[in-house]
Amino acid sequence: MNKSKQYLPFLASLLMAGCVSVDAAPPTNSAATSQQQVYDDKEILSNKVAIETFKELHFQPLGLKSRWVNIDANSQVYAFDSGKSYVMPFSLPALTQAAHVKITIPVDYTVFLPSILLLDDSYRAIQTISSTIFQYDGRSLISEQHLQGEFTIPASIGGARVAYMVIYSTAQDMQGNTPLNPDDLQRAMQYNRTSDVARLINVEVPHSATGRLYLSLDADADKIVQNVSPIIVNTDKPLSEMEYYQHIRTAVENKNYEQAIAWVKAAEKAGFTKAKEVFFEAQQ
Length: 284
Prior knowledge:
Blueprint: H1 2-19, H2 31-46, E1 60-61, E2 67-71, E3 76-80, E4 83-91, E5 94-95, E6 99-106, E7 115-120, E8 125-129, E9 135-137, E10 146-153, E11 156-157, E12 160-168, H3 171-174, E13 177-179, H4 182-190, H5 194-200, E14 204-206, E15 211-218, E16 224-225, H6 241-253, H7 257-269, H8 275-282
Parallel strand pairs: 1-4
Antiparallel strand pairs: 2-15, 3-4, 4-12, 5-16, 6-10, 6-15, 7-8, 7-12, 9-10, 11-12, 13-14
Helix pairs in contact: 1-4, 4-5, 6-7, 6-8
GO biological process, one term: carbohydrate transport
InterPro entries: MalM
Organism: Aeromonas simiae
């Protein structure tokens, strides 16, 4: 690693001496302008009015189709304990089993390094997934350099359904940077990939309040409850707590999830507080 760093000035001089054609388009950014952009983005964020409760966020439904997510000055803002951040909030499909999430963050002149907050259906925070899961992968110059992280969303946490996911960045992460492998610069120059050279020559990429990432949710479509639940349970006579719970278990066993959720609501209406817990335990 140290040897590679010693070659950086030499490699940069080779680049200026002729590794890049005189007709090549100049890079659209630079170390100086990217640092200024990082500063400007943070200043703009600091002056934004933050949404006060998670319930006030506008949640986009997250389906099974992979998608690019752009976080910019037009994104919603929330003031976390870790600092103010732009956010990208998603509502999750009703899962009956755990789902796998993969997030890929391209390394550009700046990087948006996310953390993830999971909320239950009452908008209460039930799990935080740290930015430390994202690791730099600089092996490919055919595709973009990137950071990548993967995590699992359980169907429930502590008896509560995971209903929402909020992507954000902490103030500490916005102050950091992602160190790059100097060997990536050497390979970029070897293959005359001028756009990669322009980005990688800085060795460290600053983190920003804004950026983009590629998000994919991997879940079995058969394990997603669709159109939860216009079904209403009517009983001819009062039921005991155990009878309600047994109806929930039977409906889950028969994979009739709409019916199971209807029984959950009926049990809660009757004053029995463990109906959701029974519902999720029956799926395990």
